[in-house]
Amino acid sequence: MKKETNKNTITFSPKQEEALSLNKENILVSAGAGSGKTAVLVERIIRILIDKEVPLERILVLTFTRPGAQEFKNRIKKSLLENKTHAHKAFAVDNADITTFDAYSLKILRKYGYLHPTMQSDITNLDANFEMVLMKQYFDEIMAEYYENPPLSLRYFATRFLSKDDRQLFELIKSLDQQVNLQIDPEAYLDNYLDSFYSDTKFEEIYKELDAYVVTTIRKVANAIKHFECERHLEAYETFLDHYGAILSFKDYMDNLDKFTYQRRPSGSLKEHPEDLPHAEEVKIYLNDLKEVQVFESKDRMYDVFSENKGHAAFVIEIYSQIRAKLAAYKKEKQAYTFSDIARGAFELVSIPEIQHELKNQYDYILIDEYQDTSDIQEQFINKIANNNVYMVGDIKQSIYGFRNANCDIFREKYARYRKNEGGKKIDLNDNYRSRREVLQSINAILSEIMTEEYGGANYKKEHVINSGNLKYDEFKEERQKVGLEVINYVVPKKNKKNRDNNVLIRDKIDYELDYIINDIEHKIVNKYQVYENKVGMRDVRYGDFTILIAQGTKFNRIEERFIRAGIPVYVDRDEEANENNINIAINKLLTIYVAYTKSDEPKGFEFRLAVASFLRGFVNKYSDQQLFDLLKDDNWDFSGDPILARIKKLAQTTKLLPVTEIIERLITEFDVYGALYNIRDLTQNTMKLSSKLEEIENLAALGLDLEAIVNYFKEREIAGVNAALKRVKLEHDAVTIMTIHRSKGLEFPIVYYMDLESNFYQVSRSQVMKVCPKYGFILPEPSYKSQKTFIGFLSNIYTSKETLSEKIRLLYVALTRAKELMVVIHSTNEDGEPYKTFEKSSNLKQLLLQSTYYDQKRLVVEPEYTQQRLSESEHSKEVKYIYSLHEHFYKFNKKPKTYTVSEIVDVDERLLARGTLLHRYFEEYDFTTKDLNYISDERDRQHMLNLLSLPFFANANANNIFREYEFIDDGTNKTYAIDCFIIQDDKIMLFDFKLSNIYHPSYDVQVRNYAHYLQKVFKKSVEGYLISITDLKVRKVSNE
Asked: What is the pTM for the complete model shown?
């Protein structure tokens, strides 16, 4: 991209300079990953301000996130301040129209809301989760009325599609609501829905698609057969080849089934002719696809189902329209609207000629970042105020937010038009300044094979190949180390008698992958793997240079735990579901108790009892199980003697007439909730979560909800299954980062690992029996069978699968282009090779990658050394001798055909490791109040834990003075650590660090002293440190020197 010629001067590449220097007109800049698009967009704005001397108020810059908008402001201010002549303009940047689409839409409503028929200028933002709870509430109310006197439409729908309750109906209504909210004119869309999706013309259109599918699939079968080399294989399908050409429709196929029924596959001869195997697999896959359409029987049968579904669709729309009317009335009364409503309201306002004219004349330049993420409404909004002056920057290959209503077809279609200079110009920025040449070569090789106009929305090979732009990488390179792409495959042993007899331990795939990654990270740290840093040159790799990307965050906790166990600093970039968070639960239960006391001096009921138990047992009060039992065992519900409940009761009686925000402030102060956060890990994160929770309550109060209504909302939200997220803040420290691919967009990392690549793309969408498809309307089961697809459902699956696969290809592009130095991909493989998959049948990232012959050739199989000797009971008490490594639980891998060896790896018996981990978990779960060990089923393990807990250190331990898995960030190093256990006594703190077996290596002393230093600084007490072998119960005191 650019190289600095002096402190303040940047030189742009010829292509970037072209994108910067074009005159005012509609311009689409297709900027690949790492191409410096943000720098180009900022420079474009600076040149407009300085060279063209256009006032800042005549420029509109729109993006999609607040951090993105703030980054633009910061960069623009910095550039202006560096120019003495124009530095004064920097002071206007903070108030300029450099903002998000949502914020700008809200600004339009604030300014022109008096002209809107329902919205006013002083509207309040309505949380989408709150709207969903309202929808469920209104749905229940409407259905209750229907059940009193069920109309025929309800009886018919319930008989056909519902089993036990109406939950599936509400899910279908939610799916309809999602589609309605995407429309420019929702009311017209609903009014015309039945005509649009259930007319005879629509049926003929859909039936022709089925004809085309059948004909195309039959020709795919024939094409695969024709590639057979073996004459016997060709002869096996001779009948098929003789007749397939006459099939021109679904009817032709059904009338000639005897010619196309599945014939016996020539499996034996395939071993003799393995070159035919891929084609035989293709034939099998496509013939199975053809089998699926046979159940649709005939055109007349399909039309009957189509017509019946029209009646069901009318019933669902009838229910939804009533819900929508109730929602509209609530929103109008409260003047509270979601961002989706606000965007549509702003569009309606700019459609008014006077407002449109005013805004068109207000802006000389409109610039849009991340244009590939634009929705239909946002595109139409821009079209209303544009005047051949829109500068759009984006990358269709990074359009991965379809679930947020992004429509990448807007970019794709405009790119095609501008390519022909119709309506504007397009510029391609394909030079990448982020990654090494070797990384880019691998990305190009893979994506050129799998990303096309049809799948992915871009002809990668023709127009999107990435060029290496950072020449510094050629100057700074460590020849002896691996850069670019490394593909690690491993074989999971089969669960057969041989492996059982040999005591081969078979674990989950994620465990093998984490073993390798932890091993590899430590290997690179120990051997000082070199990475390039701008203005520094080559340097030793640090933990913060490693990132693990996964498609879904469902296994975050498991991955995080493994890294903590390994003693590797780790940061998981994720939000937390509110209903699983201690802080959210504590506040909800506190409010439940408070509200109960405002209504009764002595509240009764199971829900109240549960709230009491939860709040008192939680981190705020930390009641022991015995204290709770003594309190709750009273059948008369007499809680008058409990001091905590007495304080809540007093507050309820004296403050219930105060505003909600003041009540909340009193409760938080009374019980020192912020101070109690010290009782749980990660103080910074939890402080933010508590503040976020209190802000949510404040927003609900602003809607006019009293405290009882707020408490009820939280209950209804949980019942409705609406998941609210609590944001996490990223702390800057040297730690391995774990995040989803979606969250990694816009970021870059020296070394990236890709794991857990076998999660199915379609697991959720295909499990939905009833849904609404944007192309085909309502997708309902075949009326005679509540789970079988209709022909519309069949075609809808093909449509959604293609859309999903296209987005996953783009997701893969985003994932791979995050890496600067090295991509390490790890997944399982089969002993007998990977089963063949046609491209369009790829259902996970692993299968997608294997479609690339380049990737397939890069695969390197590693073989874990499985433990094959069972440890006898007596051996459990023996000390295991081993070579020292940074961590005791490394998992040793051997590569084939090459060997991958790390001299520092500890050859730990896997069963001993598993036992140590189990014992550690038992210790974490032990209740020092009840001292009950019955949660441990194995008698030997129970006795071992009793021996551990009988050590004199734990004699006076209780729930209030013992801390386990205490996580902290060291101020000196900014690294995250977790202390296994410490006990606070009157005069000192006793610190314990558990090891598997060996407790004598000097590095352990350093680790314990660091922990002790931190605890001494925080608690102002002297600290005694001990190392404990959790398997043989040896103890060693660590000196303070």
From this structure: 0.80
